[in-house]
Amino acid sequence: MTRAVHPLLRRTGVMALALVALLGSTALVPPGPAAATAPDEELTGLVNPFIGTRNEGNTFPGAAVPFGMVQLSPDTGHSTGYDYQDHHIRGFSTVHLSGVGCRIGGDLPVLPTTGDVQQTDNARYAAEFSHRDERARPGYYRVRLGSYGGITAELTATAHTGRQRYTFPATQKANVLFNTGQSLHKTVSTSVEIVDSRTVRTTITGRGFCQDTRPYTVHTLTRFDRPFTGYGTWNGDALADGSRASTSRSRNGAWVRFDATDDRDVEATTAISYVDAAGAQRNLRAEEDGFDRTALAAHDAWERRLRDVRVQGGGATLRRTFYSSLYRAFLAPNIGSDVDGRYTGWDHKAHQARGFTYYQNWSLWDTYRTQAQLLALLAPRESRDMALSVLRIDAEGGWLPKWGYGPVETNIMTGDPVTPYLTNAFQHGLLAGHEEEAYRVLRKNADGMPPAASPAVGREGNDRYLRDGYVPHLPDRPKSKPGDSDLHEGASATLEYALADGVLARMARELGHRADADRYAKRSLNYRKLYDPATGFFRPRDASGAFTGSADPAKSPGFHEGTAWQYQWLVPQDLPGLVRLIGGKDAADKRLDSFFAYDRLLTDPARTARQVWVNGPYDYYNADKYNPQNEPDLIAPYTYLSTGRPWKTTDVVHAALTLFTDSPDGMTGNDDLGTMSAWMVLSAIGVYPVQPGADVWGLSTPVFDRVDLRLDRRWYPRGRFTVSAPGTSRENRYVRTVRLDGAAYDRTYLTTDAIRRGERLDFTVGTKPSGWGTTARAVPPAIG
Questions:
Q1: Tell me, what's the pLDDT at 173?
Q2: Which terminus of the chain is more solvent-facing, meaning fewer CB atoms within 10 Å of its CB: N or C?
C-alpha cells in the first residue's frame, strides 16, 4: 500500500531513529565529557522509555503523548503491565499508569498472530520476544515477535487513540486478537462486537486498584485500514468462527483475519472513551491518521515539551537520565474528556467540560510532593485544567479525591494529599477566578468528613483529630470503606493532616480569612502531640491517648510505608519548630547524620545509597535509615538547610541522584505517576519544593553547568529562568556564593514569586563547604 511519509519517519528511518535512541540510552555507553544540548539536537533521542521497567519501577515502554488518555504498551504478565525480565508479550493494551504499585488498566490487550486461532487465554497464546528486537522512543514502540513466524509490531499514539502497525510474514491467516476479558484489573463485564468489515467495538467494565473499588467503564472502537477476510469470537474456552458478538462476565474476546500474502502490513487505530461508544467514535474520527504521520506528530509533541528545559554540562549518561525523568513526569495525570469535551464525572454521569480540558488519574499522596510543582512550572496551562478537574470531582462526586482512577475513588494511601495539591495550584496562580471556590471545598474537607454514602473516606480520622489533635492508631478497627484507613496509620495520618493544615492556613490568610488562618495554623502544630520526650521521636497514640507500640523508632507502628525515623522530618510547615523540639540545630544535625549514614556517604556515596539506604522496592519498615525509594522521605535531605549545614543537603541529594541510572532498573522504587522522576529533575536543577503546597523552594548545588527553563509568560512574565553552576562536578559540588539576578543572595531557599519575577540564579561552586547559607536568616521559614 502507498503512504505519504515524512522524510524523518520513512519506514526504515523510524527503525533507525529508534535504534539510535535506544543504543544511546543504555548504561553500557560511558559518560562523555561535559556537553550542551545543541539547539538542533533531538531531545527525544535522549529518552530511554525502558528505564524503570525492572525492579518494580513499574514504568511502561510503549507509546503515549504528553498527558494522553491512551498509553499503548505491551503487557508481559507483570501485575502492572511490563517487566523487563519477562520474555513473552500477551498483548498491546490501551491504558497504563506509569509507576503505580498495584494492578490497574491494561484494557483491551491486542495481539497479532498467524495460523488458526486455538487458544483464548493470553498466557497461552502469548508471543515470545527478545530485547534485541525491541526499540522505543517517546511516542513510538517497536518489537519483532519471535512467535508466529516473526511479526513486527509498531505502536504510536494520539491523545485519545493508539495506532498499531503489524507486519506479518506472508500468510493467508494473519490474525489480530482482541482480548476483552483479560486486563490488568479485575474484569466485571465485557462485550465485543464486529461492527462491519473493518471495525471492532468493545465495552469493558473493571474494578480494583490495590483493593476493591467501584467499577469504571471504558469504551473502545478499532478501525483497520482494510477489510477482514474472516472473524470470530470466544467466550471462556469456546471459540465461535464467524460470530460477530460476545458478552461475558469472565474471559471473552474476538479475532479478525487478513490475507497478508502480498500486502503484509496491517494498520489499525483504537480510540477509547470513558463516556460512551459515541465518544470513542468521535475520538477516532477526530484523530485517525496514517501511522507515520501519527508517529511524527507524537515525536513533535514530545520534542516541544522536552525543549522547555535545556541543559549544559553533565555527562551523556546523566543527560539521558535527566531527560528520561522529565519525559516520565509528563505522562500523567491523563486527559479524561473526549474531543467534544464530554467526560464521566465521579457521580458516573456524563458532563461537559467548558473552557478547560478535564483530567483524571490522581496519585495525590505521591504527586503533591514533587510532580505537581514541576508541572506548575513547566506546564501551567495543563496544571490549571488539572486543578479545575479536581474541583469538578468535588462538585459532581460530593468530595475531593484522595487517589482517583478514572471516575473512581480508590481511597489508597492516607492523610490529606489533595489540600497541598490545590494550595500549590493557588500559590502558582493557577486558580485565578476560582480561589474562593477552591478554598470553600478545602475548608469543607479540612473541617469535616464525607457522608457514609460517599465512596470517599477523606480525612477519616478527623473527628478525633479535631477534638484531640491527633488521629488515633487503631489497627484492628474494621474499614468503613474500601481502600486504606487513616485509623490504621494514625501517626502518619496526623503528620499529613498537620502539613495540610499549615498550607491551608497560608491560603486562608492570603484570601483574608484570618480566623480560619489562625485556626489552621494552630492545628498545623499538632505534630507535637505525637512527640514522645522519652524517645525523642514521634509515636502513635491509641484511643485513650497513650503512646502505643514499640518505643524503638525503627519499629514503631502507625506510619504508612515508613518508620518514625523516616517520618520525623515530615514537618515542612514548621521545620524551625521541629528542630527546636528535638534539641536544636546541633542535635538535629547529629540525628540527620545518623539517618543518612553521613560519614559512610562521604567516603562512597553511590555504595551508601545502594547498600545502606535501599532495601528493596517494597521494604518500608524496620529501618532507621533514609529510604529514597518512597515518598515520605523525599523532603528529608533538605532538612539540613534548617540546621545551617546546606552543604550536607548537596552531599545527600547528589548521592541519591546516583540511584537514577540509564538502565531498566534505573528507577528508585515505583515512579508513582512521575513523582520520583520529578524529584530527580528538580534535585538535578538544584531548586526543590521544600514546603509542598506552599511557595518555598530549597536550594542545593545543580548537577549541570546551566539549565534554561522556558516558562509560560501568562504565569511567568519573564518567560524564562536560568540556573547556572559553572564547573559543577562530583568534586566541585559545594556552594560558595549565590546570586539572584546579579545580586548576592545568602538564603537557602527561593519563593515561587522570586522565580516568577526573576531570570537568573547563579551558583559558584568549590571543593569545600563554605559559610554560605549558614546564618539564622538563611534557613527556610515556617509557613505560619
A1: 98
A2: N
